[in-house]
Structure prediction request, 220 residues.
Amino acid sequence: MNKKEIRVVLDTIADMFPEAHCELHHSNPFELTIAVLLSAQCTDEMVNKVTVDLFEKYKTPQDYLNVSLEEVESDIRRIGLYRNKAKNIRKLCELIIEKYDGEIPRLHSELVELPGVGRKTANVVVSNAFGVPAIAVDTHVERVSKRLALANWKDSVLEVEKKLMKKIPKEEWTETHHRLIFFGRYHCKAQNPACDICPLLDLCREGKKRMKKKDLRKDK
Prediction:
């Protein structure tokens, strides 16, 4: 995909989703970190249903340590992998109390050292909580990037991130991340993407393939 085509993609998704934003409910960097940690292999919608009570009960890292592991597990039981996530939450809270005076660190290199916090989570936190440009590659961003040939089919998540960072102006990283998520979540879905009404169909190798198959079925 050349620079002109990339610009078309960026401008089109900007027109489609001008208000794209982080859909995980939070009021501070600590809550955002917990929410993103919980979102692994789980929908934002479910995370928000759980955190509405969770964040009312647990205001600080110490609050998670003042109760048993079993109680934290019980409070997030509706979330997938809740046992492992509960352990990571408590370990994360212990570490930020011991090393960062109870505050979420601002540096990406420090965030990825926190239990349960990978590169994607760190990117979400630095960009949304601290205003540092970043592109977090989740399942939606990865799928859309590969369908639109912004990345190769066999690229790893890290390779997708690096290619997007190279092709997209740095000042647009964060907003593009949100728009790609919205585009993938509400339009270019994993199953039944809206190819027939997609303004990017001419640039989408997956869309063209799907529409060709659809036309062949009609001709039979």
